[in-house]
Every structure is written in structure tokens, then in C-alpha cells.
Structure prediction request, 412 residues.
Amino acid sequence: MRNNVIIIGAGAAGMMAAYSAALRGKNVILLEKMHQPGLKLRITGKGRCNLTNTSPLKDFLTHVGSDPRFLRNAFSQMFNTQLMELFENLGVPLVVERGSRVYPRSGKSLDIFLALVQALEQMSNVDIRKNCRVASLIIDDNTVRGVILADGSQILADSTIIATGGMSYPLTGSTGDGYHFAQAAGHSLSPRYPALVHLDTDIQIPSELIGFVAKNVKLSISLNDGKIISQHFGEMTFTDHGIAGPIVLSASRMATAPIHQGIEVFAHLDLKPAVDKATLDKRIINDLNNNGTRLFHDALRIWLPAEFIPLALKQLHIEYYKRLNQINAEERHRLLNFLKDFTFKLTGTGNYEEAVVTQGGVNLKEINPKTMESRLVKGLYIVGEVLDLDADTGGYNLQIAFTTGYAAGNHC
Prediction:
């Protein structure tokens, strides 16, 4: 029997595609290779599920990489307001928190998952099949006809939607299958990298600083030509290998590709972003004059949290027991530069096991932005993380997954 729609992958994009298609009366078979659908959705946002962001469209798109304009048409079909209404109508109260981030009021991602999966289970025209691995697509005369499963059996359909996710959190089933299906169908892929990850550095982090959360700091990322490619303000954490935390995850989107390509990438940390360099220099001079007899290693607490002092002493090369009234102009400028522009090289990134999303994927020029249908193969749709679309943390990536899935289900 021929079905209307096959969807490969029952994550956020796949389940939303199934919901959207089923609402239109299509007969949907949703194939999930894992023992349960939505495994990644259940752990997203540290188990809280930051499902979208209430930023206006113009601001929202500034957080999207690759080609944010690609999403305009899809967002006209479902954006943040419509997504929030959908889940509230499914019985999930939502709350907007700092940074315009939207969460279920319960703080449990399981509520988002259950709302979607229960809605699908109540639809007589949706068949969810678990432990069902797709081996390949059936393509004939530039038209997708269905899929071949790992056991050799075939399922035929008028349309097939690839919604397998990227390669992040592979234990949830995201192992890059969708890229292989798309490539076999003739699609080109941009290089893929783990994104929204911690960053490794070339400096040894003192034990006192490991786990310390630096708040209200500015992190800038530059290439070896000095060009600043990313700048974020907020919180970051020091690890035994380097740096992590919210602004590091966001900064990693721009740093990941050049690091993996062997390009030199540098981090610039401004510990005093609220004050300009000239004003801070005057304050330091005043502090030196007013605390002239204090020893340098002790007086560093004037400018830095205690956890930072071992790193500062190592980087500044100023004698521990030097009195502040003995600090010369060159040493003062070293201190000033440490506070305003502590620079270190970035040497690596986290792997796919910890990456929130995969950067890179199917070339957007080969996809119809309104329908998510392939421009190369009729009846084939590609959605979510398989596409060359990724965004900052803050609910942007899940909104993209839900929206692209909804658009494909709405047009397949």
C-alpha cells in the first residue's frame, strides 16, 4: 500500500512535520531508529527545553548562521508566537525567562515531548514505528518513491521527509544518517563541525580557576589577521581544558570552523567591559597611589576575584612581593591589558558528544525555502539540523527545527 508521507527521524523537526502533515489529512509513517522518539528533545536545554525565543523576526535572524534569509518564508508559516500557541493548546503552559527564552512552566522538557507524541498518537492517520532504521531512499526518475529499511523491506510513499538531525549527541540517534541520504540523492554538503561547544586554550588553567563562573565579561574572538569575528557579553566558565559557559557556546559558532580548518583563532577577554581603557588606567593609577605599601600579589584582589589571581600572577610576570608604589608604567600597562584584553589562543573544540548542534549540512540553495522540498529530487523534503542552518543558544535552534518541519509537513 502506498502512503502519503514517510518521515525519517522522530525528533523535534520530524514530529512537527508529522503533526503538520496529519492535520492536512495525510497518511503519515514516522520512522525512528531508536527505541523511543524524541530522545534529544528530552535532554535539550539541560532537560528544561528552551523551545523558542520571543525576539522579533529581525532580531531573531541575527542569531542564525549561514543564510538567515532562507528562513523568512518558513517563519511566515510558523514563528515563535504560533509555536507557543500550539504547545499551550496542547496543554503545556509556557514561561518567558531572561533573554526572551521560552520554557515550559514546569521546567521539564518531557512535557514538550509528551505533548507532541500524545497528539500524534491520537491521530488515526499517524503510524509511529520505533526501532525502524532506514538504509536508503528509493529514487527513480528524479523522484523519491519511498525507503528501504535495514531489514531489506520497502515502504512506498508520495513524499519522504529527512528529519534525522545532525551528529550532535549521537547517543540519542543523531549519527549523520540524513547527510548520507541527502548526498545519495545528489545534494551537496558544506563541511560539518560540532557547534555550541566548549573551547580549548593554549594556557594552563590554574586549579583555583577551574569551575569559576566569570560574570559580566566580554569575550571577543579574532582570526590571525586581527579581525574580530564574534563578540558576546555575559557569563563564562573556566574548565581544565579551556573555557565554557553561555557566551563561549555562542562564540564557538564562529570559532569552530576556522579552528578545525587549522586557522589560528584567538580569544580576547575583557574583565571590565563597563569601563573604557583610559578610565580604567586612571583608576589603577589611583589605586596604586592609595595602596602604595601593599604587596602586589595581595593587592590584586582590588581588581580581580581571588580565583583569578594565580592566573594573573602567571601571565603578568610581576614580582609577587613588589609593593604597589614600586610598580612601573610598563608593568601597570601589563595589568591594564590583562584586565581589558587578556588574549590567548584557541586550540580545539568539544566533540559531537557534547555539541548542542551540528554546523554545516545540506546546501540551502538546493532547497525550496517555502516548502523545504529538494530542488533536485521531487517529493523529497529536508528539515532541521540536516540543513546548513545553525544558531546561537537561546531557543533559536529548536524554533528552526519546529518551523522547517512544520513547513515540510504543510506542503508535502
Q: What stands out?
A: The chain has two domains: 3-191+360-411, 198-350. The mean pLDDT is 96. Residues 198-350 form one domain. The radius of gyration is 25 Å.
